[in-house]
Amino acid sequence: MSTDNEVCYLAATELVKRYKKRTLSPVEVTEAVLDRIERLEPHVNAFALLDRESALKSAHESEQRWAKGDPLGLVDGVPAAIKDLILTKGWPTLRGSRSTVADQVWSEDSPATARLREHGAVLFGKTTTAEFGWKGLADCPVSGITRNPWNLAFTPGGSSGGSAVGAALGLCQLHVATDGGGSGRMPAAHSGAFGFKQTFGRVSVYPYSQNGTLFNVTPLTRSVGDAALLLDVIARPDPRDWNALPASEINWSAGLDDGVAGLRVAFSPTLGYADVDPEISRIVADAVKVFSDLGCIVDQVDPGIENPLPIFRTFWAAGAAKLLASLGSRRELTELGLQDVADEGAKLDAVSYVEAIEKREALGRHFIGFHQDWDLLVTPMTSQPPSEIVESSVGLGVRTVLPPFSYLSPFAYPFNLTQQPAATIPCGFNSAGLPVGLQIIAAKFCDAKVLRAARAFEKARPFSRPTDPV
Fold this sequence. Notes:
two-stranded antiparallel ribbon; eleven-stranded mixed sheet; alpha/beta
């Protein structure tokens, strides 16, 4: 690959080291990343908005700070992009929907965006999303189809498809994504990137999505170290988020290389209910052997739960109903499939919703008990490989018929319900050359344990890069 491409694939942690030594400048990096985006973007469609002028201005300001030896923060001069569900001052946040009025004053940053600005990151633009993040695909009426970096005929998954593609292809080192039911982890697995859903409340969220306390703002990067660095920046309380955890002095980048010897690892190939593609089952089972090699105590154990899909579906549909009710007549500008989910939610009664809350609490208590015996739970990330893109089924006025959630993300949504930390890391490729992801889960608040295990696996099985899709 060219020198410029190598620069684009440098980790954020490495960029900061080189800026400090003055062997590389933020302007050089920004120009290289911009050139790469503009060359690959017509093929993959990862960005809903790209602001070249703003990025270069920020890079020049960062370069001046580094020249004085006075960087703003931990990621000064590092390229970053924000998913188009997250507010960014001065840029429209359309949420992938024609129902959003673009011509308004965009005067506020969401907490994660604000923290990145405070630390000097170079913000490039907004990455693509499914409309309001409602589905596990990467297309929407506003920005069209986002494509898998390993094979353009396939979806990268969603809804954070643009973030996953950008991370895998070196189109910005740091990506802020979201995960309400696997929306960050699934596309990371399908695209060959690292996705991490931290304990709920660790990263402040404002405004909340229609999915309420299922919804997380998350790192999505090419490496575990970069995800930890991004957490060091954005894992801060914000007064606008009443669910935010208290301020903590945890350094998420510290201790990543301490290893996992002695940890008790439960490997569950199906969680007791999932129907998993045979190739994925084989690849993940082989990958789990790495933990034994690293000194973990590994046993095949199911956590003993029923499929919590009905619980999740209640919250998901109710949230869609609330969202579309707030749109008034503009509801008709949304995808028909989203309208179907909202109609399902509108039929729910209060008793059913409260029962779902109680069942969610019981599920959370179950996993608290499970993790008394097991440090980590390891599963496949997805049950099926990426699907081929059917272009005729994409767009406004077309009813997107999705496979059931139990097919798309049986390993993802349980841990949005329980609010536990969960990461996906690439662990191999299927016979079609598409990535497969391994999921690592720990008890609530044990985020550092997940990051440490993911880092140990990453060192044992380094990531591959996709060939440039041109």
